[in-house]
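Lab notebook, bench 4. Still working through the backlog of constructs that have no structural model yet. Next entry is a single chain of 249 residues. Request: give me the structure tokens for it.
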Amino acid sequence: MSTWVLLRGLTREARHWGDFPALLAKALPGGRVVTADLPGNGRRHRERSPTTVEAMADFFEAQRLGLEAPVNVIAMSLGAMVAVAWAQRHPGAVQSAVLINTSLRPFSPLHHRLRPTHYPALLRLALGATPRQWEETVLRLTSRHAGTPQAALLEHWLSYRSDCPVSRANALRQLWAASRYRAPPEKPALPLLLLNSAQDQLVDPRCSAALAQAWQCPLRQHPSAGHDLPLDDGGWVIDQVIDWLSSQP
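Model written out:
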């Protein structure tokens, strides 16, 4: 039975996947889908977030999530960095990976990895914002056409934040870890699929293109989705994963 571990990004938790895990499990008969939280997020919000991506990867390897290796990983943004570090530092632990809208040093410059037009908004969040202001900003920056009515989606996100609040210190630790992570020059020794969004307002789509060229791995682009591609069109993501798997030896 294949196991798929889903890893989210900065300050996001398992519930932010919405109905994507259930849809993926339905599309992978016999497969097991597990959603995992980074330390400091979701069910682990009381834990201290590591300040390096490598430490985050080591955390998942140590926890093993109750699973036997190897696992398959679908990850986005910061979670995709963790997936790469996990595969690099623990050969054999990860069987394959799908990386969504990620950006990695040294393949892309800072102004591509985080669009400068959003620096002021992110700075305002870091300096102090109400929960509603925080979640409204995140939704505006990450989604282009969320399937759930956005007012209802925002209320869901606010309830997650109330249940499992991410501290400002942990948010800054995660941001610090993401900003410092440097990926290996050579592709980890496993099959990789890159997915990105042409209308990503947060991360320039050229980041995925640069990584695909450097590591010589396939890249598939959604024409209209935003940064949170599984939210905007989870069905498309699953179709790409299934099609890619069918082409693997």
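Notes after review: The first strand starts at residue 3 and ends at 7. The radius of gyration is 17 Å. Flag for follow-up if needed.
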